[in-house]
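Ligand: magnesium ion. Inputs:
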Amino acid sequence: MASPFDSIIFDLDDTLYPSTTGIDKCIKKNIELFLIHKCGFSESKASTLRVQLFKTYGSTLAGLRALGHDITAEEYHSFVHGSLPYDVIKPDAQLRNLLRTINQRKIIFTNSDRIHALTVLDRLGIKDCFEQIICFETINPNLPKATRPEEFPVLLKPSLDAFKIALHAANVDPRRTLFLDDSIRNVAAAKEVGLYTVLVGKTVKSEGADYVVECVNSVPQVIPEIWGNEMEMDGDDGTMRRSKSELEAVLATAAVGA
Ligand SMILES: [Mg+2]
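Predicted complex:
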């Protein structure tokens, strides 16, 4: 049987590296500092406002602009990501080996800006494993042209419009595409646009999740169908045999790491 998937789309933060690095906490802290120092909100208000804006608008930046604050995406991203301790993200050789056994198209789809995405992929040592990075700038091409902050809404996952733009940019058929993300909201939206979905970093499937993996490196055990019949096929084709042994090596490493 051939693989049911022609393409695999990966979220980045907390999907390709675990939230235990603490990067997500630093991002939240920096967003609150942005609200205090750049927008003039009080320290006591910043934390609740960040959560409110995220719930209502999808992100703090989206919320601030929708409410008329003239904040550019560049100044927001450079403040929020500029001082992150990226050195806590280490090269992941196991993930690199795993990605290299996947012959399908591999695409990143992140709400983060391109500089952050490239920095993280570089730290993980997997930048060359992806053919395309769909990021904030891809989903929001008109934002720099806005004459007032609320002119164009900031689009981000889990908005269905963001997914539609991403699927178009990636030129994939959602019915033949696997999508991995750590966000329950993003997985539910991905299912709505017809993608096969993997919830990452949890133990229980959420609504719309076809699979759940505690860690991206567990994908071979949980979704072996990505590799189709390459595991069983052991004919004269050297390529097939090589990919079988590669996969077995990855599985062995994954088992040791578990
Ligand atoms: Mg994420």
